[in-house]
Structures are given as C-alpha cells and as structure tokens.
Amino acid sequence: MLLLPPLRQLKKDPLQSGNMALTAALLFVPLAMIVAMTSEFVALNSEKALMQSAADAAALSGAQNLILVGASARQSTSDVERFAMAQVGEFANRATVSFKASQGRDGTFTVEGLALRPSFFGDLVPPGGFRIEVKSIAESMQVQPLCVIGDDGTVGGKAITAANNSGIRAQNCIVHSNSDFELKNLATVEAGAPRAAGVAIGAGFTPAANSGALKLTDPFRGRAIAPSADCTTVPDGGAQVRSAGTVSLPPGLHRVEYTMTGTSILKLEPGEHYFCKSLKLRGQGRLEGDDVLLMFTGGNALEANQSSSVSLSGRQSGLWAGFVIVATRGNYANFSIASSNVDKLLGTIYLPMTRLQVSATGDVAESSQWSVIVARNINLTNNARLIINSDYAGSPVPVPIGVGNQAGGTNVPLRLRQ
Asked: Is residue 168 part of a domain?
C-alpha cells in the first residue's frame, strides 16, 4: 500500500526558499563585479591605446616641426600639447587628460600624457581612480626641403587651392598649408610631402596628403620689409607704356607704373628694386634681371599676362640674399601670373599678406634652379603647372635660413624612439 507524506511536508519550506534567494543574490554580486571589471579593463586598454596614439602623433609632429623651422624659430611646445589633446577627442570629457611636450637638445621631441578617470566604489579601487600614463619620443631621420607655405591660418580658410587641370610639381620637397589644402576637378599636387594644418581635400595628391599637421610659423616673420626710403622722396613718374625697345632700370625707388607690351623689355640691373607702383607685362613684353630683388609697396603688384615673359634670379648677397620678389606687410594686392612664359623665378618669393594667383596655360618657373614660395594664399587655375625645383647645390642665389634645405636639421627621416 502506497503511503503519502504528510501534507505539511509537501509545502515549500519558507526558510529554505529564503536561503536559496540569499545565496543567489550573494553569487550575483561578485559575478556582476567580475563582468564590470572585465568591461572596465577592456575600456582601459582601449583608452591607453588612444592616449599612446595621440602622444606618438604629437611627438612626430613636434620632431618634424623642429626640422622644418630650424632651431631659431621653433614651434611652441604648447601647440604640440594642443595637437595631442585634439587627438583624444571626447575621451577628454570622461577623464582628466593632460599632455606635456618638451624639446631635446639632441633633436628629439618628447610628449608625455596622463589621464585620470573614476574607478570603482568612489575611486577606492584602485585608490584615486584609474591612472593612464604614456610617453613618446620622436627623432628626425630625414629632412625634406620646405619649398611652399600657404600661410592663411584662419579657421576654415584655404591657404592653397588648385582647380581645373592645374597643379604643383614639387617632387622633392614639402608643400604646406597652414589651413585647408583643396584640389578640385582634375587638379594635382606631386610633392615630397603635401601637408595641411586643416584638411586636405581632393584625390589628386601624390603621395596622400597629411591632414591635421601642426601649423608652421612664418620663417621670416621677424624680418623688416620696407624700401630704402619713402616713395614720396622721388618724383611721381606717372604711367609709362612701352611697346618696343629695352628699358634698363638701375636699382632704387621706382615711382612709375611700367606697362611692358609689344616686344618691349624691362631689364633690371643688379641690386634692390623698390616698386612704388605696379609692374604690368602684356603682349610679348619681357621682364628680366639677375642678382635682383623686386619689392612691391602699398597695393602694388606684379602682373604677367598674355604671352609676356619673366626671367629673374634673386639677390646673391646682402640683406636680401636669397629673395627675388617680396611684398611689404601692408600690401594686400594680388600677384598674377597668367602667362606660361614665366620660366625663371630663382629665389624666394615672399608675400606675407598677399595672394599669388597662377592661371597660366602651361608650366611656370620650370627653368629655376630652385624656388621657394611663402604667401598668404596660393591659387592655381586653368592648366597652370607650378614647378618647384630644389637643386640648391651650386646655385648663385643662396637659400635663406628657414626654408628650402636651410629649414634646419640633418638628412634623417622621422621615427619613434619610444
């Protein structure tokens, strides 16, 4: 006969049920902590990798900047620190992040990073919160000459632009924009290193352009630019239009607006020429001169249009050694090269507040042994091809300190030492 247990034994024991619930709860707490801690450690590894990447990029940028601007005009370490902070993005909103940059006497650039963020139980585990420390040391191993700087550093500005079938060929040197660098249509840039402190826009860069580079300090920012005397100290010669023959112009102040057209030639004698009025080339007019500096004051500029030709080499000695065309700091006029017969611009073109517009239908400056351009804006259109050579050896025109192969450093590439 089957015996049934007492009815009271069939009911669940309340004490036993409570013990099971308590046991489950006690087991859940460490399990949840393990999951949370695992998740935190995965996040920590990701955050440390982010911090290390930011320090590496900043150290490399700092080391490259040391090379480019030379020991006498280095970018401030605070700029490098801001560059590193920009690389970590929104992580800086979740943690206290700081970077410290320093320059070594041996040419190295060091960036150290520290991030502090909350940990478990009110920062008790570990005490004080999670601490992420990174360090990166970069050094230069190769220098490329610095041959073009577009110095418009305004937010959203485009210091260098090229459109249509135009472009720049500077295969062995650096072409740098202190803001955006934009290529439109079929425009191309071939350079040793195309760089933009802002954004490089377009598909025509060879090699691919580097966006987010550090801004470069104007290598000539401390140089005084002024004519030998005030323009009013010489008589106003008005405007002269020449259609034939040769005009030999000695160095000094020129308060005449020359327009060379037809087959006329303006021949500049060696020395420093200060133009108090614009110089215009039309038709087959020609401008030539060796060992010369052309400085344009006020709102005056050089214009080379139609089939005109230009052949100039810069000063070989003196205060302006290495320069060929310069605009004063108060000069906002546009310098225009619309002729493809501008074949020689040997030296440095320095237009600190000025736009250089190149709209020729062919190569420009291709016969120059070397050229350097530092301008606020550089704009190319049509089929213009700006040729930047870098054959500095044996040139009668010396390269100014701060650009070209005188930008500082020794010929070694950049690398991360640590």
From this structure: yes
C-beta neighbour count of 19 within 10 angstroms: 11
Distance in angstroms (rounded) separating the CA atoms of residues 169 and 192? 9
Give the 3-state secondary structure of 9-32: HHCCCHHHHHHHHHHHHHHHHHHH
Q: How far apart are alpha carbons 64 and 106 in whole angstroms?
A: 14
Residue 328 has a CB neighbour count (10 Å cut-off) of 20
- Using CA atoms, how far apart are residues 376 and 353, in angstroms rounded to an integer? 5
| Contact predicate 75/216, CB 8 Å | yes
Longest C-alpha distance within the chain, in Å? 140
Domain membership flag for residue 2: no
Same domain for 304 and 362?
yes
| CB atoms inside a 10 Å sphere around CB 21 | 10
Last residue of a domain, one of 139, 165, 187: 139
Q: What is the pTM of this model?
A: 0.72
Instruction: Supply the range of the domain harboring residue 294.
Output: 146-411
Sheet containing 130-139: order of strands: 96-103, 108-117, 130-139, 415-416
Distance CA 411, CA 180 (A): 28
pLDDT tens digits for 238-270? 999 999 999 999 999 999 999 999 999 999 999
Whole-angstrom Cα Rg for the chain = 32
242/134 same-domain check:
no
Condensed to tens digits (0 to 9), the pLDDT of residues 69-84 reads 443 444 578 888 999 9
User: Both 158 and 133 in a single domain?
Assistant: no
Nearest C-alpha neighbor of 164 from the set 180, 183, 186: 186
User: Is-contact 321 296, C-beta < 8 A?
Assistant: no
- Say how far apart CA 77 and CA 50 lie, in whole Å: 20
Q: What is the DSSP string of 184-217?
A: -TT-EEEEEEEEESS-EESS-EES--EESPPPPP
